[in-house]
Every structure is written in structure tokens, then in C-alpha cells.
Design brief:
Number of domains: 2
Shape: elongated
Number of strands: 3
Largest sheet: 3 strands, mixed
Helix content: 40-55%
Number of helices: 3
Order of helices and strands: EHEEHH
């Protein structure tokens, strides 16, 4: 469940930081009873950015499928990746 705190509680930065890190989710800050800010740890922020990137790529793939772009076989894709990135053992 999301944490909601009034802006006056930002004075206690150590407590807010601990909550962000312990819960692993954003804290919503209100001002005069209305939503104003969102505070989160860097780890949570980076996780959110990663999810946004995945959703963006999925939407792009769905668009390509809808446009009739041919699909690639998984084995073919992995073979190309191995050929490109795996160095030969001597």
C-alpha cells in the first residue's frame, strides 16, 4: 500500500529516506491535502525506468506485428547473437 505523507514531514529526511529504502516503493507527498510530489529511492527509480523501457519495447513489437513485419525464429536470433558476441575459444 502506498505511503502518503504531508509535506511538513519532509523535515525529517532520514526517516523519509529509511521508509523509501525499506518499502522499496514511492512515497506520495501532499501539500494542502492534494498530491504534490513523489519521492523514491534511486533503486526504485531505476527499477521503474527499466519497466518503462520494457513496456515501450513491447508496444513497439506489438506495432510491428500489427504492421505485418515478419517474425524471426528464436533459434536464428540466438545464433546471430552468439556469432556476434561469443569469441572463439583458442
Amino acid at each position: 500500500m502506498p505511503q502518503i505523507k504531508p509535506i511538513t514531514e519532509l523535515r525529517n529526511t532520514n526517516e523519509i529516506s529509511e521508509i523509501c529504502h525499506k518499502k522499496g516503493e514511492p512515497i506520495f507527498i501532499t501539500k494542502n491535502g492534494y498530491g504534490d510530489l513523489v519521492i523514491m529511492s534511486i533503486e526504485t527509480y531505476e527499477r521503474q525506468l527499466g519497466l518503462v523501457d520494457v513496456y515501450k519495447k513491447l508496444a513497439e513489437a506489438e506495432t510491428q506485428i500489427a504492421q505485418g513485419v515478419p517474425l524471426l525464429e528464436g533459434t536464428e536470433v540466438f545464433k546471430k547473437l552468439r556469432d556476434k558476441y561469443v569469441r572463439e575459444k583458442i
